[in-house]
Amino acid sequence: ATVPAGVLALLLGTLLWAPWQALHGAPLVELSGDQDFQLFLHKNLEFTRKIKGDVAALQRVVCDIFQLCKEEELLLVRQDLGIVQVPLEQCHSRTFQVEACFSQIHDGLRTYHGSLAAVLELLPGHASLVETLQLDAANLSSNIQQQMEDLGLATVTYPTEGPGPLPTFSSSFHHQVGSFFILANFQRFLETAYRALRHLARL
Questions:
Q1: Is 32 within 8 Å of 203 (Cβ atoms)?
Q2: Can you give the pLDDT of all 203 residues of the chain as single tens digits?
Q3: How far apart are CA 86 and CA 153, in angstroms?
Q4: pTM of the predicted protein model
Q5: CB of 140 within 8 A of CB of 54?
Q6: Contact present, 169 and 175 (Cβ < 8 Å)
Q7: Could you please report the per-residue DSSP string of 174-196?
Q8: How far apart are CA 22 and CA 28, in angstroms?
Q9: How far apart are CA 179 and CA 190, in angstroms?
């Protein structure tokens, strides 16, 4: 038997929104009416958008200078570098909780703040942009920490899987590709963080 189109659309809609379904739980209803929390969300949405723009600008620099522009062409090299994506699954899981998501954003921003040192070494001529990005990542992390304290939310610590000290690059090419993936991963991380903040702002 065929499934009616309307039912199919409904099922598809449910699947697409499944990651956010737990957002409508009781604690968030209280948060959604909190004016200070809403102000925090809107200010930091703008801040996250600004950081995303700066990461994109650095990605263009890496593309222009080193002709490293497409991820799919570099995946084999990536395997040798040991650079992994900072986890952010708590921001789009079915069991979404503000504490867990904010904790992962907070920790991830601190990780990328450190990782950007590799980009700074690679692009001394663009030091001011990289340093601004590091400062902004630190400030956004601090904003989230402060907001969690204001809301009385506990910081959730996750075991660090992967991103520890910066990888040691065996060649200048590996350094270039490593920096490329640090920026690409950071951009994806920011996209997920942005979507989580935006969804909270729409509740």
A1: yes
A2: 444 544 444 444 433 433 433 343 335 545 655 788 889 999 999 999 999 999 999 999 999 999 999 998 898 888 888 787 888 988 887 777 888 999 999 999 999 999 999 999 999 999 999 999 999 999 999 999 999 888 888 766 655 544 455 667 889 999 999 999 999 999 999 999 999 999 888 87
A3: 22
A4: 0.80
A5: no
A6: yes
A7: HHHHHHHHHHHHHHHHHHHHHHH
A8: 9
A9: 16
Per-residue 3-state assignment (H helix, E strand, C coil) for 123-140 = CHHHHHHHHHHHHHHHHH
Measured at the CA of 112, the angle between CA 117 and CA 98, to 5 degrees, comes to 165
- One DSSP character per residue, 77-120 reads HHHHHT--PPP-GGGSSTT--HHHHHHHHHHHHHHHHHHHHHHH
> Residue 67 is encoded by which pair of tokens?
């002709």
Return the C-alpha torsion angle 87, 116, 191, 107, nearest 10.
40
